[in-house]
From TrEMBL:
Protein species of origin: Rhodopirellula bahusiensis
A GO MF term: tRNA pseudouridine(55) synthase activity
One Pfam short name: TruB_N
Function: Responsible for synthesis of pseudouridine from uracil-55 in the psi GC loop of transfer RNAs.
SUPFAM superfamilies documented for this protein: Pseudouridine synthase
Protein name (record): tRNA pseudouridine synthase B
CDD domains referenced in this protein's UniProt entry, alphabetically: PseudoU_synth_EcTruB
Matching InterPro entries: PsdUridine_synth_cat_dom_sf (IPR020103), PsdUridine_synth_N (IPR002501), tRNA_psdUridine_synth_TruB (IPR014780)
Signal peptide: none
Top-level taxon of the source organism: Bacteria
Keywords: Isomerase, tRNA processing
Residue ranges of domain Pseudouridine synthase II N-terminal in the record: 42-184
Active-site residues, as the UniProt record annotates them: D52
C-alpha cells in the first residue's frame, strides 16, 4: 500500500513555476490542491530540483511515494534558456542585487563567445555562487553571504552536454544549455563572460526540460497564486497531468519481472536478473558527477536499476514500476519497493 493511502496519487507532476514564486510555494499549493481532490488529510509532495525565485519554467513535483525516487530523478539532465547582460556585475550574479557597471568593458564579438563556449563541454569544475542554497558548514550560503560573512564556496564537478549561443545583441547574450543536475547557470554565464574578458549577470532563466519532461507538458500553476484562485481553478483535475513514476526513471537499466520475482521483491528477497539497456541512457561521463547522490554501488560503480512489470496492457511502453534495485553479490537487492495495480487488487 502507498504510505499515503490506497487511493493516493503516485507519480510525477510537471508544473510551470512563474517568476517570483519559490519552488516550495509550488509544492505547498499543489499539495493542498491534491489533498482536496483526493479527500486526503496527508499527502507527500516534494520537488526534484529547485528553481530560484527569479527563474521560471519546469519544476517537476514528486507525488506520494514517488518522493522516494528523488535521488534517481536528480540524475537527469536539464535544459535551460539563460539571458545575460555583459559588461555589468552584481554580488548575487543576477538582478537580485545592485548592478555595477564595468568601466571600459570591451564586449566580445559573437565569434569570440562561440569560440570560448567550446571549452565549456563535458565534465568541468564549477564554483557555485555565494548567493545559493548550498550549505557551507551547516548553513545556507546565501544567508551567510547576506550577513557579510567571509567564506569559501566548495568546487563541484558538473556535466555540460551542450551550450549554444542562441542570440547576441550586445550587451545581451542568450544561451541554450543542456547540463547535469547541480549546474549553476549564473556561474556558467559569468565564467563564459570572464573568459571573454568581461563581467556578466543573469537577467532571465527558463527551465525547459528535465529528462523526458518538457515545458509543453506542464500544468500552469499561475492560477494558484491568485487571490481568487478557487475561481480560477482549471476544470481539469490536477491529477490529469500526473505521469507514472517509471517515466522519471527511463534513464535507468531495467529488469523485466515475472510474478514470482515481484512477490519476492515485495517480501524483501533479492532476485537474480540481467538488466536491459536503459531506454534513454545518461551520458557515460555522468557517473563521475553524481558522487553527491547515492544511486550506485560504490564498490563496483554499477548503477542501480529498476524492476518493472510489463504483464499489463495498461502499463505503457516502459511497464509499471515495482522496485529500485541495487547490485549485491551478483543478485539485486530491493532498495525501494512500490505497490503494483495487481498487488493492490489482490489485497482488496
Amino acid at each position: 500500500m502507498d504510505p499515503n493511502g490506497e487511493h493516493s496519487p503516485l507519480g510525477f507532476l510537471p508544473c510551470y513555476k512563474p517568476p517570483g514564486a519559490t519552488s516550495r510555494d509550488i509544492v505547498n499549493r499543489a499539495q493542498r490542491r491534491l489533498r482536496g481532490e483526493f479527500g486526503l488529510r496527508k499527502l507527500k509532495v516534494g520537488h526534484t530540483g529547485t528553481l530560484d525565485p527569479l527563474a521560471e519554467g519546469l519544476v517537476l513535483l514528486a507525488i506520494g511515494s514517488a518522493t522516494r525516487l528523488t535521488p534517481w530523478v536528480l540524475q537527469h539532465g536539464k535544459r535551460y534558456l539563460a539571458d545575460f547582460q555583459l559588461g555589468v556585475s552584481s554580488e548575487s550574479g543576477d538582478l537580485e542585487s545592485e548592478l555595477v557597471i564595468q568601466k571600459d568593458a570591451k564586449l566580445p564579438t559573437a565569434a569570440e563567445i562561440e569560440q570560448v563556449l567550446e571549452d565549456f563541454h563535458g565534465v568541468v569544475e564549477q564554483t557555485p555562487p555565494a548567493h545559493s542554497a548550498i550549505k557551507v558548514d551547516g548553513q545556507r550560503a546565501h544567508i551567510r553571504a547576506r550577513r557579510g560573512e567571509d567564506f569559501e564556496m566548495p568546487k563541484r564537478r558538473i556535466l555540460i552536454d551542450s551550450v549554444k549561443l542562441i542570440s547576441y545583441e550586445p550587451p545581451m547574450m542568450r544561451l541554450d544549455v543542456r547540463c547535469g543536475s547541480g549546474t549553476y547557470l549564473r556561474t556558467l554565464g559569468m565564467d563564459v563572460a570572464a573568459a571573454c574578458g568581461c563581467a556578466a549577470v543573469m537577467t532571465k532563466l527558463v527551465r525547459n526540460e528535465v529528462g523526458r519532461f518538457t515545458l509543453d507538458d506542464t500544468l500552469d500553476c499561475e492560477f494558484m497564486f491568485d487571490d481568487e484562485d478557487r475561481e480560477k481553478m482549471p476544470a481539469i483535475p490536477m491529477t490529469q497531468f500526473l505521469r507514472p513514476p517509471v517515466e522519471g526513471l527511463t534513464h535507468m537499466p531495467a529488469i523485466e519481472l515475472d510474478q514470482q520475482q515481484i512477490g519476492m521483491l515485495h517480501a524483501g528477497i533479492r532476485i537474480a536478473g540481467t538488466p536491459q539497456r536503459a531506454a534513454e541512457p545518461l551520458p557515460e561521463e555522468w557517473i563521475g558527477c553524481i558522487d553527491h547522490v547515492d544511486t550506485f554501488d560504490r564498490n563496483t560503480n554499477v548503477l542501480d536499476c529498476i524492476g518493472v512489470d510489463r504483464s499489463s496492457d495498461s502499463s505503457g511502453p516502459w511497464g509499471e514500476l515495482v522496485a529500485i534495485l541495487r547490485p549485491h553479490r551478483k543478485l539485486w537487492h530491493p532498495l525501494r519497493v512500490f505497490p503494483t495495480a495487481e498487488s493492490i487488487t489482490l489485497r482488496d
